[in-house]
Amino acid sequence: MTQTLNKTAAEAGKKALRAVDDAGDAARDMAGTAADAVESGVETVKRKAADARAAIASGAGAALETARDVALEKADAMRETLSDAGERLAATLERASADGPADVLPARVLSTVADGLSSASQALRNRSVGELGADVRALARRHPGAFMAVAAVAGFAAARFVRASATRRLAERGHDAERGTRV
User: Of 102, 117, 118, 168, which residue has the fewest beta carbons closer than 10 angstroms?
Assistant: First the structure.
């Protein structure tokens, strides 16, 4: 009977070892499947992230392109307006020079200024905004000191204009112009 028990215990032990081996094999298979699933999930997330990044970049690029187009349209409209104003001013100066005697210095100066202004207006009308920007950049590289001086004068003039406009608006509203916001 001891032999039978030993034999049964040995068979039970073998069965238990086979069950442990089978369970280990199943666990390895499950681990491999889980690893494959994780790897597949990571690849899917990477692909979706790349797609999202491309969509965002495409949308941002389109928005930037639209903003650039609108800015160019506005700049072209301003260029046309400035050219028209220059031509009107040139015509006014030309009329003022024609009203006086031709040999008087002020009449000649007005005529010369009117001709120069008319030429500048025509050149402004015939150039694109991109060409004008390239010209300004080239001028700034060739003559940085003069460019900085002109930029400073233009900045002061713009500040005075804004300040005067704000003061006038405050006065029109009935507020004390001296206590208004200063620019």
Answer: 102
Which amino acid is it at 49? Answer: A
3-state secondary structure string across 71-139? HHHHHHHHHHHHHHHHHHHHHHHHHHHHHCCCCCHHHHHHHHHHHHHHHHHHHHHHCCHHHHHHHHHHH
Per-residue pLDDT, 180: 52
Q: What is the DSSP letter of 183?
A: -
Question: Do residues 85 and 117 make contact, with C-beta atoms less than 8 angstroms apart?
Answer: no
User: In sequence order, which residues have a C-beta less than 8 Å from that of residue 68 and are 6 or more positions away?
Assistant: none
Q: Tokens representing 52?
A: 């999202």
What is the 3 state secondary structure string of 163-178? HHHHHHHHHHCCCCHH
pTM over 0.85: no
Positions of the chain with pLDDT lower than 50, given as ranges: 177
Query: Cα(69)–Cα(116) distance, rounded to whole angstroms?
Result: 32
